């Protein structure tokens, strides 16, 4: 029985089991099998699939003929990015993932008892994870109503927190692709201009209000031509998978620069992503209805099926020299008012073309309760309510030496599928 | 005598002459020699240099050993984009351009009298020009004070047209790279949401206010690392060259979507660029002082030398079935309040990294007079003053079937260096 068959029927509760040892609460179960790009001291960059504490080296499986019936391009897995693999199309990438799942099932001896097994299964903790895709264009949406409302309350009119366009279209903007970095790479506190309310003229220096934004991003898997649009019900054909996304933000720089053309240097210094791309197929079991949209949206944004997913998202802060990270936020991807199908339909309704490897982030995902707000701006309410950490320290924003960690996972019917984490420490400004 | 020597001394007025026939008023003189990527019915994509009505096929020159002392990577000119060539660095690309200039001088017989000459010199009118670079990230600035003032007067407060940040930093935003297309490719009128003042709820359909924006863009030629910044006086080392840039805009879509995160679908449906990249070196002779900046800018934006260029920029509209295009705007690159060195210094001051092939556009360049405004929005003052065309027709915005043409050139001391043109016709919405 393969994953596909399993999730097709929620009543068929025969859990899959694997011969790989998967720790309890691992995000990388037999149901997940995300794609990533890794290297280690011995191995050059290559594509793998994560399970438990291991990585399945797909290039070795390929060399040994485990995919020979699929007629894959030579060396497809010996690649520094997933783009070429993704470009083969969903039919192929699904087949590859399902083949790996078959090979990992407890009663399948083909790899389990093969002499090559030791070479195929690489230790995750010895691997360095690279940026999984060469990112073309990057777009950031603003699709959580709670987040947009909180920001509106703080910076505009508390009585009319949402701007007039917000419930009619998924507001979004183009971001900087070059500075998207994989988990583990430290970020440097950005310098820039700011003008605090008490200043007559703008000042310059390291940002004093460095923040995270808890987001999820999808990676496009199929190109369109300039002039073409994608309908909501075909949109998921164009989505390969998802990663956690920390949209680092310098609030003081952003506040001064952003009128009238939007965020720029307050964002472009870095964005961190988790390295394992969780496929859309792996999230199928956690599909759910999104918030009711009122007023009714225009026809090109209407959906006839569910495109939201019940995924818990968490943010943690770990100060330097403190052993334990403190969870400061628990949110959920299902809070998004605008779903991924609507985002993609909107993005292309004007004929804007997409390429394989474009990244589209959700925007900060905040929930309805104060502990579900997805940024320090909201959690500390613009710095007026410091957040207490387990170490006794307090934070209004992120300080030098702090590590910010984000996690995300779905769990239902004993099935867990997760993203691992995205983490980055903050170095002082240069 | 080479170009370099020539322009180093303005008093040395010995004009260069070439054995290639260069029509009067050609933009592609012996002083220019821009790089581009072309193909034709016989030839696969390759890199050339334009002179007069010809293209010098650099791949043939290379095969014949004309660059053998430079130890260039094999097949460097048989390329679909300039990125790899540009990545060799300015020292190399300058040498290549100077070698071509030498070979084209009237008294140099090496190519002139060589049997290969016919194969090297390709007719421009038989060539199809491709996008010259694979664009990484694209940024659009907003650096003309007259343009920002006009927009501010129309949409905000006529008495306080410029926003408070405008004179302190070069306002900019990230744009969509995937939809940047070369001259000649038609654009399709975009569809989208808009909400005119008389509408209670937003509508959907083809844009009714399609506009051009007259801009120039530079292409970066040298990468930086994440965390590094570029100073104003080293910025030009990172600039390879320039192209004309038509930042197509759907004003009605833009007006409804742009708060608070900036332009998105009102821009991302297409941007057109001229195919020949005019190098920074070719523009050296036309360097000039920019507008005085008052109040004084922060130290990281201060310049000790001139980074503005005296380049005339023009926009034309040619309706369908009309033989002659009407010039609707004459502007100049020197009107930019913020120069390219300041733009690049600002862009990287927060540590944002750049790559070879990034594109940074100026924003609409408007001058002080009504005939120098660089968009229909300004020329027709928000549609209140229709622009008369030579055919007797009027335009408030761009109509289906119209072709918009932009030209740009510098001329001084009998030396002319130009961009050719960027043109695109507008097809009806799908």
Structure characteristics:
fumarylacetoacetase activity (chains A, B); SH3 type barrels; homodimer; 5-stranded antiparallel β-sheet; 430 residues; alpha+beta; EC 3.7.1.2 (chains A, B); 10 helices; phenylalanine catabolism (chains A, B); 2 domains; fumarylacetoacetase (chains A, B); Fumarylacetoacetate hydrolase, domain 2; 8-stranded mixed β-sheet; 26% strand; Fumarylacetoacetase_N (chains A, B)
Structural description of this entry:
The structure is a homodimer of 430-residue chains. Chain A folds into 2 domains: 35-129, SH3 type barrels (Roll), CATH 2.30.30.230; 138-427, Fumarylacetoacetase-like, C-terminal domain (Fumarylacetoacetate hydrolase, domain 2), CATH 3.90.850.10. In chain A, 17% of the residues lie in helices and 26% in strands. Chain A is built from 10 helices and 26 strands. The first copy, chain A, has helices at residues 3-8, 58-63, 83-87, 90-104, 109-112, 117-120, 145-155, 251-257, 340-348, 376-379; strands spanning 35-39, 46-51, 54-57, 121-123, 128-129, 138-141, 172-175, 180-182, 187-188, 191-194, 203-206, 210-211, 214-220, 239-246, 249-250, 271-273, 278-279, 287-288, 308-309, 312-318, 326-332, 359-361, 387-388, 394-395, 403-412, 415-427. In chain A, the strands form 7 sheets. In chain A, strands 6, 7, 8, 13, 14, 16, 17 and 22 form an 8-stranded mixed sheet that branches. Chains A and B meet through strand 7, strand 10 and helix 8 of A and strand 7, strand 10 and helix 8 of B.
């Amino acid at each position: 029985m393969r994953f596909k068959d399993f999730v097709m029927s929620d009543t068929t509760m025969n859990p899959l089991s694997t011969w790989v040892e998967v720790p309890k609460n691992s995000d990388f179960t037999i149901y997940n099998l995300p794609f990533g790009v890794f290297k280690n001291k011995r191995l050059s960059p290559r594509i793998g699939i994560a399970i438990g504490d291991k990585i399945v080296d797909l290039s070795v499986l390929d060399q040994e003929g485990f995919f020979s019936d699929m007629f894959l391009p030579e060396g497809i897995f010996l690649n520094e990015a997933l783009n070429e693999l993704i470009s083969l199309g969903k039919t192929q990438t699904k087949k590859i993932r399902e083949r790996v799942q078959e090979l990992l099932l407890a009663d399948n001896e083909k790899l389990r008892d093969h002499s090559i097994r030791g070479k195929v299964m690489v230790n995750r903790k010895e691997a360095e994870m690279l940026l999984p895709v060469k990112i073309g264009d990057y777009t950031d949406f603003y699709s959580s109503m709670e987040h947009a409302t909180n920001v509106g309350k703080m910076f505009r009119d508390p009585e009319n927190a949402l701007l007039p366009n917000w419930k009619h279209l998924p507001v979004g903007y183009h971001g900087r692709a070059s500075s998207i970095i994989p988990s583990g790479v430290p970020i440097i506190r950005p310098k820039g201009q700011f003008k605090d309310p008490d200043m007559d003229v703008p000042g310059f220096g390291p940002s004093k209000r460095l923040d995270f934004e808890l987001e999820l991003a999808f990676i496009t898997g199929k190109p369109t031509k300039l002039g073409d649009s994608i309908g909501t019900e075909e949109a998921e054909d164009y989505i390969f998978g998802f990663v956690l996304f920390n949209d680092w933000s310098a609030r003081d720089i952003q506040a001064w620069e952003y009128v009238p053309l939007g965020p720029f240097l307050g964002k472009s210094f870095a964005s961190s992503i988790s390295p394992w791309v969780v496929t859309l197929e792996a999230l199928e079991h956690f599909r759910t209805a999104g918030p009711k949209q009122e007023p009714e949206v225009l026809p090109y944004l209407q959906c006839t099926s569910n495109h939201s997913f019940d995924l818990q998202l968490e943010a943690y802060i770990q100060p330097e020299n403190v052993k334990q990270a403190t969870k400061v936020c628990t949110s959920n991807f299902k809070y998004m008012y605008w779903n991924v199908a609507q985002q993609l339909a909107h993005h292309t309704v004007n004929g804007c073309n997409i390429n394989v490897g474009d990244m589209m982030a959700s925007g900060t995902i905040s929930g309805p309760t104060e502990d579900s707000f997805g940024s320090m701006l909201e959690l500390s309410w613009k710095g007026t309510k410091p957040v207490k950490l387990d170490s006794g320290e307090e934070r209004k924003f992120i300080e030098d030496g702090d590590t910010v960690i984000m996690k995300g996972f779905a769990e239902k019917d004993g099935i867990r599928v997760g993203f691992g984490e995205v983490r980055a420490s903050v170095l002082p400004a240069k």
